[in-house]
């Protein structure tokens, strides 16, 4: 009997880090599903790599639902790896930037993870692409206290992310203890989410492994030309999340080593 080829799903993967993650997973022997919001570009990228393509806009709940339905139909055996890579880093800082960034980088990850949870196989790896830019010490002492990973719920974490956007819109984010970075705040949320999911799913018999990873500052369209790392190194740091010990309490890594946040 031929061994089943493990299946990996990568979001935001028509270029940059996502595309390179797909390439490296393919070279590791995975069957890869590349997803992207722009179908024409995503399909072209998938054809170039020789992998599958499915459309996905992480900001659109209906798009996530369609992806899940298609995965059920085409891949009923389920997923072995999910890399939640889709994200934005926008110029400037205002209410629109805050809302778009948090909705994409935090809620986009949450939508995808909660959508695919029923499709995950035993021993699955969920890798959430975060960033060392998202440091908790950017927050006021009061907000850090509210970010208590021992008692915080996912609902409360999402409420905090919405509160950041609301405070930016009201022009009171500094007064409320938030930093002036939407990207950094959204990634604080992503790293916290990895810890909360690990706690919440600890008793799942499938032994779901969730880790947040930092690729570093990479030279991509999003990272810009001055990044410290090439895309191959950044993608390797993301995929080092597959090798993190499952029983390690720390859930944020860079290059396979625990990273501060």
Automatic annotation (TrEMBL):
InterPro entries: NAD(P)-bd_dom_sf, SDR_fam. Gene3D superfamilies: NAD(P)-binding Rossmann-like Domain. GO terms for molecular function: oxidoreductase activity. Keywords: NADP, Oxidoreductase. The keyword NADP applies. It holds the Pfam family adh_short. Belongs to the short-chain dehydrogenases/reductases (SDR) family. This is Short chain dehydrogenase. It comes from Nannocystis exedens. The lineage of its organism: Bacteria, Pseudomonadati, Myxococcota, Polyangia, Nannocystales.
């Amino acid at each position: 009997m031929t061994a089943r080829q493990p299946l990996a799903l990568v979001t935001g993967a028509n270029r940059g880090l996502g595309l390179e993650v797909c390439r490296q997973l393919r070279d590791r022997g995975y069957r890869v599903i590349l997803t992207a919001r722009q179908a024409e570009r995503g399909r072209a990228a998938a054809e170039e790599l020789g992998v599958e393509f499915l459309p996905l806009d992480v900001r659109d709940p209906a798009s996530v639902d369609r992806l899940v339905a298609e995965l059920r139909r085409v891949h009923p055996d389920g997923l072995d790896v999910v890399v939640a890579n889709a994200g934005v880093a926008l110029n400037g800082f205002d209410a629109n930037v805050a809302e778009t960034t948090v909705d994409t980088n935090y809620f986009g990850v949450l939508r995808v993870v909660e959508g695919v949870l029923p499709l995950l196989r035993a021993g699955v790896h969920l890798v959430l692409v975060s960033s060392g830019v998202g440091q908790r010490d950017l927050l006021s002492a009061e907000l850090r206290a509210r970010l208590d990973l021992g008692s915080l719920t996912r609902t409360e974490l999402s409420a905090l992310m919405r509160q950041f956007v609301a405070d930016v819109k009201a022009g009171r984010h500094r007064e409320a203890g938030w930093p002036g970075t939407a990207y950094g705040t959204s990634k604080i949320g992503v790293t916290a989410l990895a810890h909360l999911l690990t706690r919440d799913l600890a008793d799942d018999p499938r032994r779901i492994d969730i880790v947040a990873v930092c690729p570093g500052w990479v030279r991509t369209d999003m990272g810009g030309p001055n990044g410290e790392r090439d895309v191959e190194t950044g993608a390797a740091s993301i995929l080092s999340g597959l090798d993190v010990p499952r029983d390690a309490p720390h859930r944020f890594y860079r290059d396979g080593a625990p990273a501060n946040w």
